[in-house]
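Q: What does the assembly look like in three dimensions?
Context provided by user:
Components: two
Sequences:
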Amino acid sequence: MIEPDIIHSQAVDIARRVREGELRAEEAVGAFLERARARREWGAFLSLREDAALAEARAVDEKRRRGGRLGRLAGVAVAVKDNILVAGAPATCGSRILEGYRAPYSATAVERVMAEDGVVLGKTNMDEFGMGSSTENSAFGPARNPWDAGRVPGGSSGGSAAAVAAGLAPLALGTDTGGSIRQPAAFCGLVGLKPSYGTVSRYGLTAYASSLDQAGPLARSAEDAALCLSVIAGHDPRDATSLRGTARDYLAESAGGLPAGLRLALPREYFQEGLDPEVEAAVRGAADAFAELGARLGAASLPHTRHALSAYYLVATCEASSNLARFDGVRFGTRAAGEGPRTLLGMYEASRGRGLGPEVKRRIMLGTFALSAGYYEAYYLRAQKARARVRADFAAAFAQADLLLAPTAPTAAFALGEKTQDPLQMYLSDVYTVPCSLAGGAAVSIPCGRTRAGGPIGLQLMAPPGGEGLLLRAARAFLAARPFPECPALNAAAGPALGGLP
Amino acid sequence: MSAEFEPVIGLEVHVQLATATKLFCACPADGAGKAANANICPVCTGQPGALPVLNRRAAELAFTAALALGGKIPARSVFARKNYFYPDLPKGYQISQYEEPFCAGGSVALPGGRAVRLTRIHLEEDAGKLLHGVGSEKLAHSLVDLNRAGVPLIEIVTEPDLRSAEEAADFLAALKAVLQYCGVSRCDMEKGELRCDANISVRPAGSRTLGTRAEVKNLNSFRFVGDALDYEFRRQCAVLAEGGRVVQETRLWDADAGVTEGMRGKEEAHDYRYFPDPDLPPLAAAPELLERLRIGLPELPAARRARFSAALGLSDYDAQVLTADRSLADYFEAALESAAGEAPEAPRAALAKALSNWVQSEMLARGGAEACPVPPARLAGLIGLMLKGTISGRIAKEIFPRMWDTGKAPAELVAELGMTQVSDAEQVAAWVAEAAAENPKAAADLRAGLEKAAGALVGAVMRKSQGRANPALVQRLIKERIR
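A: Here is the predicted structure of the complete assembly.
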């Protein structure tokens, strides 16, 4: 079957065409739904909203027929990471412990997508509860990188990234705690935006690390990311950590090309040992391209970067150990009886023992230990102090620069199975994304080059809190000057031939 | 034995705030009469992704309690997670306050005037409830009811300042009065709106050091507090007297058996891993808000008691009874105000005494001011009729229950029932003559100078008049006419 052109369209164009009556929402959603259904091999989706998506698309068409004004995401199929709740749909978070659970309500971000006539296509694969950098920690099998099916799409929002890169959806929502939107965007040649903490409501986002979690868009263009952010951002009375003044027209703010004299600084700590030379070359090349567009390049230093990863893995695991306590088999999800006499403790142990995967258990134990009496000061409190220093580093750097420019990840996409036996190697994949998360700032990953093997390389731009507009403007200007090629999977007649997997 | 020892007692009191909704969601806080799990939502059942948002009213009530109890309110306090697993705790942690509570210090005055110091007050959410049986039938499994989960509580912790079970009960009564006065809580112990745990140790009388304490839980009525602490004091004294050592432990009061029993160290193993809740910003105590709340504070029970004694001339006992419950004191004052209007010439103290008697005898017997359907002005009207001589005191006591039952005004009932006092001398004289004719022996005795015999004639006249004859006039006419 010949794929309709729509698979190649940007979300902004789909929404415009649906609003203007050139395209029916049902066609637009149907095309992606059909493709998502046919290309299960990517492991991008954990569930599809087959009937609901089409019914909602038809309702959008009906609204237009009756003369109603259509929203900003009219007819745009949106893939939603499985840790973001969509009423009535499964929400496994990539975990056995939530198998069979159906969300009793929708996340605020999802409600806002729907209020703008966007249609949620399905729920995407992810590392269990967001804990991982390759989507190999999903209890339901890994997602694959559409640029190379033998490689990982990154994680934890790997399913969302794979869906957009492979043309199964024009737009996706992911979540980023320490890099989980940016790193998969880098691995899959996408634009992935982590908004500043408090920009997008966390209501309905299954918490991994509450002080770090943010939902954000994965898209094939900066315009699409800006449109999506405009829809999902904004204060929410149901999230006490959400900020006012965040509901803005980021699409408008991102127009106008690179601001003249934009000060871009390269933090030297991000270009040291461990950075793949191919990635470094591509990122430095991109910096030069920014200079050609009129940016002023400079250097910056974020001296506490070396403490960021350990601080992150303490803060995040401490919060996770508490956040994941609710998965106890009592009210929802997996409940298992233990061996021997039926006791409460036996039920807890069996339910959590069987329901949670090894990486999740590792992080819960790490966090539980770090919060324990006698260790709290040495670990949790010291991590908070390190976090404050990392934040101060960024504040100082942003006094000298408008944006920071760095690699998104030390390497391009690695092979499936390459790092699953070595958690520390896997953690290092987040070394450039974690600091900005700790600082609460905004960051975007955009594609800036390719490896010799053809895989995408990501460039990370970082801004102080509230800097999304400038971030997206720079991203948009760069991609207009250096357009990134479509993923070949978009034009492939079929999904990947799989085999020989580890 | 116990004469050589004294108990040292500190209390931890959980008080449910009188909010319409729960602490972190919009579910109704009052589950009375509701089916299990009727008041629940994604937030208070701990669904994935659900987040707490602080109920502003709960914070205001908490601050009000701190102001009324004289505690220090820091500019910000911090919500913390208390982590433990139990099926009645939906999130696997309770949102509470730990290192930075919203109130430090404060005190409560005992009736004798001595101040019991408070250590701190913090804000927290309640847990749900487990049901292990239905009626008398024990279930093979347990059921979870989350109606209470997320209901707002303040926990008030005292210093170890109490020296007897009676003092502990007095403290609770005084605390309850303050909290009820401010509208912070209804403090209905039967509904679990006020719950108490006690830490108690014993030491040789006069000693300055503290003994090893036991924590006694499940003290859910004033009587339990007294009984359990008495028991626990005697138990610890006996242990020490036999040369043993008191074990630091949590003990449960078994009201049926009248004993405390150790929970076998189960509680001691807990490490709650408190840390600041990242879902909630620190609770700010804005000076303008505190000022507004301070201005809104009512006159507190101790001040009101003093005023009732000093300004109204009531006895300490009367003042104490009338002010123990705010609704009773409010009722009393409103009725007094109206009565003064009805009888402007009557001395304020006499009116106060009359009303105080009336309120204590007639109203408390019928369930108190809150249950009373008679508005204070109507009671004042009744008292006014009595003071004006329209009706006798005896008739007034017959009218009041009818006002309670029918909602009618006193004058209306008096007219309806024809109970107006008869002060017409001619009519009363006729009744006196009839009474003397029908009771010749009493009349003869009286004529013979036996004053006591007048009583029988008064009774006869009152019967004839159906109680309406003016008693003073009856007395006078009997004296005048029967001689």
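Follow-up: The longest strand of chain B covers residues 5-16.
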